[in-house]
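Running this now, will post back.
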Amino acid sequence: GTEYDGFPVLSASAPFKSGGRGGPDYYTRIDAGPIALKNVADLYIYPNTLRAVLVDGTQVREWLEMSAGIFNQINPDDDSEQSLISGSFASFNFDVIDGIRYQIDVTQPPRYNASGELLNPDTHRIINMTFQGKPLEADQAFVVATNNYRAAGGGSFPGLDGSSIIIEAPDTNRDVVGAYILANEKIDPSADGNWSFAPVDAEVNVTFRSSPNGTADLPDDSPIRLLRIDEDGFGVYRIIL
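Update: finished.
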């Protein structure tokens, strides 16, 4: 019933508990079965409130370009072990935007640094963006559900400074997740695979650190496998790009 009625709605969210200084046990694991409110609190650890911003296709791409700064540049001509994740980039600034599909080309240098400064204006890591099966248009308007931190400029994302906010809801994002679970009673939290890495035309040895317990959830055909446990207790995984 507002002027934004009928606009396509996307959603942005980032991982919070992802190891780092918290150690190899600082991850969220919710086993199959009944879900408790403590599980929701464990999944969404911050008291952020819900916001919606109005952006266009170009701004969506720049949003994702900033997020893609979490990845180191991978050299396809280097057969030594290359770390995928940058240690200087906070995981809560790695937004995934759902409702569209896209790929991330990590052989390209990052467009932005962790402070939001434009480093490489002539490069793009975000490629093959589509919306409802068609190429995403630069001037197409989208409403993106996010949180007050990001919408108001948290993380120094390009184009997000508070001026694009169209909804300021009092609800915390944690309460929204909890209400969704209660309303649906049974949920399937499987990832929908709306983004992926662009294939690298070479056999590269790309690794990342995560919980060693993650091996229990890897299917037989997974492109990820555990190589070793490092001195800090993290599992070092190899991923085929």
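The first strand starts at residue 9 and ends at 13. More later if anyone needs it.
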